[in-house]
Structure formats: structure tokens, C-alpha cells
């Protein structure tokens, strides 16, 4: 009898687990069914577009009747702008890529320290904290096109900046054609707009990072007599490193993918001074009707971005 009762008890223990497993499988099936339309759309549109763009980068195609007009050229599209096979196109591509690098470097150089400082303010301010947070995060919710037109109003030939310099008698600082209209200052103006737009999201990341730091670490440092600078250098900054890696990858990707602000503000001008890879891709595909060339440029930039992102990850957290 004892053996039978133990077997029954064991069966009773297993049955709920079997029922739980079946219920979990049913829930998983429901989840997959709900995700199926999105997965199908991605496979049909997203994955197809990616594969076709790789395929297209090996062809010379003007955008009309692919089967009848497309001509296979292999890697000639890549050689044209990477190795100097077409000197003019090579010069324009590397100049645009250089602008991407400059925008990414200088925007990151300013965005990280400013965002860390503002995150500290948001963490520690007590009175009017909601107003501070709203002011910092406005760029994230504002319409991109409207914001960039506002920047044109500030930096234009008759914009607020020139008007202010004139009113103060600082005529030597006035940019006659506007900051965006002068080849010497246009890229600086674009970098300023990028910094302004990137700060809110970066502040959120650093705010989350600061909120997750254990307060006992600061208490122990205070007991040991550490200065604020030492606390920042030895505790806060190392613990914010994972967030910094995320920020760096975001800035790299953002710098090489930016299009909207440059196109609205300058269209790559004046004289190509603010031309970036995305605007070059747009003009190459939709104005020059060289779709294969544009695809080759896009995949070249993708590989550059991928390498830089992997290097950033390995450099900062690869040894952990």
C-alpha cells in the first residue's frame, strides 16, 4: 500500500507540470501567431529589399525595366568610388565620408560630457525638476523638419544670430550668406544641430545609468575621504562605461545614417561642403539614376559602420 500511495503522489506531482507545459506551448503558439504578420511583412519587404540591394550593387541600372536594361558589372561599382577608377566620384565619396566622420567625432566629443553633466542635474535637482526634464527632452518630441527650419531661421543670412551680432556691433562675426550658406561655416552649423538633437536621448541613458549605481559605493568613498573628482573618476565613470559604449555606437550609426537634417538645411551645399554619404546616395540614385552605384555606396558605408561598432565594443568592454 505504501508503494502504491507513493506512486499516486508522484503522478499527482507530475500532472500539474504536464498541464503547465501544455499551457505554455499554447501560449507560445498564440504569440507566434500574433507575430506572424509582422514576420511575414519583414520577410517580404525588409529581407527582400536587403537581398535585392546586395544583388543590385553588382549591376549598372538606371531604374527602368531591370530585366531589359540592367547590366552586370561585378565589383566595378565599388572600384569606381573606392579605388579611384572614377577620380571625380572617388573624390566626392571620400569627401562626403570625411564629413560623416567629422560630424560623428565632434558631436560625440560634446554630446557625452554635456549629457553626463545634465544627467547629474536631473538626478540631483529637487525644485522644478519637471521643468528641467521637459526642457531637456523637447528635441526628442519635436518634429524634425520643423526643428531644422527653425535652425535655418537662427543661422540664415537674416537670421537671429547675424541680427544679434549686428546689434552688438560685432560686424566682423556676421556671416554674410548665413552660417549654412558659407562653405567655411556650414559644416559647423550642421554639427551644432546634431549635438542639440542628440543630447536628450543621451541624457536619458546616462540618467538611467546613474540611477542604477549603488549609493553605498559613494558612502564608502566619502568615509575613505575621496574627493568628488576621485569619486567621478574611480566610481561613476567606470560604472557608466556600458552606457557610454551604447552612446558611442549610437553616435557612429547616427553619423553615418544622417540625412534629414543635412538635406533640409543645406542639401549638401554650399559647394558640397556639407555633403554626407546619405545625401550622396540620394542624388546618385534619384538624380543621376545610378541605382547600382548607390547600392554599392550604401553597402560600403554599412561595412565601415559595422567595423567601427565592433571595434568600439571590443575596445571598451571586450576584456570584461
CATH H-level homologous superfamily name of the largest domain:
MetI-like
Q: CATH topology of the largest domain, anyone?
A: MetI-like fold
The end-to-end distance, rounded to whole angstroms, is 58 Å
Question: Tally of extended strands?
Answer: 2
Which structural class do you get from the secondary structure elements? Answer: mainly alpha
Strand order of the largest sheet: 1-2
Helical content (DSSP H or I, runs of 4+) = over 70%
Query: Mind telling me which CATH architecture of the largest domain this is?
Result: Orthogonal Bundle
Q: In a nutshell, what does this entry contain?
A:
Helices cover 76% and strands 1% of the residues. The chain has 320 residues and is mainly alpha-helical.
Amino acid at each position: 500500500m505504501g508503494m502504491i500511495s507513493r506512486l499516486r503522489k508522484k503522478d499527482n506531482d507530475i500532472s500539474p507540470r504536464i498541464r503547465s507545459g501544455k499551457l505554455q506551448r499554447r501560449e507560445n503558439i498564440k504569440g507566434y501567431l500574433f507575430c506572424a504578420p509582422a514576420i511575414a511583412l519583414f520577410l517580404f519587404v525588409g529581407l527582400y529589399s536587403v537581398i535585392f540591394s546586395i544583388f543590385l550593387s553588382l549591376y549598372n541600372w538606371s531604374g527602368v525595366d531591370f530585366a531589359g536594361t540592367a547590366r552586370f558589372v561585378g565589383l566595378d561599382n565599388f572600384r569606381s568610388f573606392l579605388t579611384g577608377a572614377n577620380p571625380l566620384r572617388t573624390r566626392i565619396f571620400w569627401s562626403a565620408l570625411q564629413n560623416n566622420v567629422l560630424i560623428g567625432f565632434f558631436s560625440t566629443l560634446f554630446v557625452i560630457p554635456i549629457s553626463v553633466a545634465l544627467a547629474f542635474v536631473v538626478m540631483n535637482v529637487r525644485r522644478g525638476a519637471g521643468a528641467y526634464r521637459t526642457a531637456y527632452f523637447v528635441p526628442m518630441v519635436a518634429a524634425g523638419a520643423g526643428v531644422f527650419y527653425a535652425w535655418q531661421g537662427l543661422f540664415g543670412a537674416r537670421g537671429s544670430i547675424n541680427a544679434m551680432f549686428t546689434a552688438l556691433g560685432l560686424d566682423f562675426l556676421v556671416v554674410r550668406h548665413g552660417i549654412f550658406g558659407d562653405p567655411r561655416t556650414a559644416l559647423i552649423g550642421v554639427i551644432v544641430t546634431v549635438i542639440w538633437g542628440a543630447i536628450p536621448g543621451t541624457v536619458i541613458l546616462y540618467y538611467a545609468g546613474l540611477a542604477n549605481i549603488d549609493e553605498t559605493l559613494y558612502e564608502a568613498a566619502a568615509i575613505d575621504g575621496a574627493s568628488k573628482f576621485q569619486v567621478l573618476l574611480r566610481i561613476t565613470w567606470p560604472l557608466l562605461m556600458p552606457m557610454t559604449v551604447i552612446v558611442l555606437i549610437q553616435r557612429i550609426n547616427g553619423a553615418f545614417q544622417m540625412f534629414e537634417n543635412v538635406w533640409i538645411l543645406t542639401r549638401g551645399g554650399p559647394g558640397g561642403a556639407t555633403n554626407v554619404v546619405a545625401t550622396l546616395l540620394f542624388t546618385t540614385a534619384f538624380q543621376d539614376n545610378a541605382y547600382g552605384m548607390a547600392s554599392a555606396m550604401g553597402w560600403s558605408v554599412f561595412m565601415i559602420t559595422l567595423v567601427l561598432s565592433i571595434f568600439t565594443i571590443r575596445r571598451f568592454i571586450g576584456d570584461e
